[in-house]
Write a structure and sequence with these properties.
Layout lengths: L2 H7 L8 E6 L7 E7 L2 E9 L5 E8 L2 E10 L2 E9 L2 E2 L1 E6 L6 E8 L2 E2 L1 E6 L6 E8 L2 E2 L1 E6 L5 E8 L2 E8 L5 E2 L13
Length: about 190
């Protein structure tokens, strides 16, 4: 199929007040659909990939993300988050593609990380790290764990500034920071 044949078969439907269907790729594999009101996205918009596979659902109000947003992978939901007036609000969850378990759990208030942020090792049941945020800045105790569940690092932040750090090896023996081979980043 040539490019002109593609456009004969796949015409964009674009309305400032009504349904829109937009093909973004000459292969025809990607499609975006949703409604506009007064020229702005409004309500549920869906993005599709190959074989009309749903890859994203986003809600809009007046052209701004507002409401639930989901991203889909080959085995189900890979990310879900809520927006209020264009800013993340509440829980954002990232899932491992297989076996579709929680990988990252983040909490937001007015678009900024706030409260506990959790990261899990592959499989989604063993905690890898836990971080705490206050209005977008690290604040409080942060912990990183080895795959065996042993605590690897513990740090403390006050208003985004590191005030304390302690490290352990996989067997629970305290070690100096230079000997530490794990990660201490927590949830970014």
């Amino acid at each position: 199929m040539g490019i002109f044949d593609f456009f004969k078969k796949h015409k964009n439907i674009e309305n400032d007040n009504g349904f829109n269907e937009i093909y973004n790729d000459v292969s025809g594999f990607f499609r975006l659909e949703g409604y506009k009101k007064d020229g702005h996205r409004d309500g549920l918009w869906k993005s599709y990939g190959k074989n009309k596979t749903l890859v994203m659902e986003e809600n809009y109000k007046g052209g701004i993300r507002h409401g639930e947003s989901k991203t889909f992978g080959s085995r189900g939901i890979s990310n879900e988050v809520n927006f209020i007036n264009g800013k993340k609000e509440g829980v954002e969850t990232d899932y491992l593609i297989y076996p579709n378990k929680k990988w990252l759990v983040k909490f937001y208030v007015k678009g900024k990380k706030h409260g506990a942020q959790l990261c899990f090792w592959y499989g989604g049941t063993t905690l890898q790290s836990e971080s705490n945020y206050n209005k977008g800045e690290r604040d409080g105790i942060q912990k990183w764990y080895y795959k065996n569940g042993q605590l690897g690092t513990e740090t403390n932040y006050i208003e985004g500034k590191l005030t304390f750090k302690k490290c352990w090896d996989e067997n629970g023996n305290e070690i100096d920071e230079e000997s530490f081979t794990g990660h201490s980043f927590g949830v970014e």
